[in-house]
Amino acid sequence: MPDIIMYTTSTCPYCRAAKQLLESKGAPYTEILVRTQIVKQEMVKRSGRHTVPQIFIGDQHISGFDDLARLDREGRLTTALRPRKA
After folding, report:
1. What DSSP state is assigned to residue 82?
2. What is the phi/psi pair of residue 26, to 5°?
3. H/E segment holding residue 79
4. Whole-angstrom Cα distance, residue 81 to residue 25?
5. By CB atoms within 10 Å of each CB, which of 13, 17, 39, 60 scores lowest?
6. What is the per-residue pLDDT across 16-51, written as a single tens digit (0 to 9) for each?
7. How do residues 50-70 score in pLDDT, each as one tens digit?
8. Cβ 2 vs Cβ 81: under 8 Å
9. Domain 4-81, what architecture?
10. φ, ψ for residue 56, nearest 5 deg
11. Which strands make up the sheet holding 4-8, listed edge to edge?
């Protein structure tokens, strides 16, 4: 399974929803809490977005919860979570 990185805040309902969706798929993720301006700047530089969550699966920027949920509805999330062949 590719590495999953998710930038979140502790009060964001969309962050909680994204975590629940990934957990329902058995997909472990690394959560980076956006608590400081430095971390926010890192997130914005990496994603081009100012809102949370910002989700990355491997090298692919998924964006936020709505995009993650759309991938799941379309059946493409399972594919994105599969290990890549070397």
Report:
1. S
2. 70, 25
3. helix 76-81
4. 9
5. 13
6. 999 999 999 999 999 999 999 999 999 999 999 999
7. 999 999 999 999 999 999 999
8. yes
9. 3-Layer(aba) Sandwich (3.40)
10. -125, 130
11. 30-33, 4-8, 54-57, 60-63
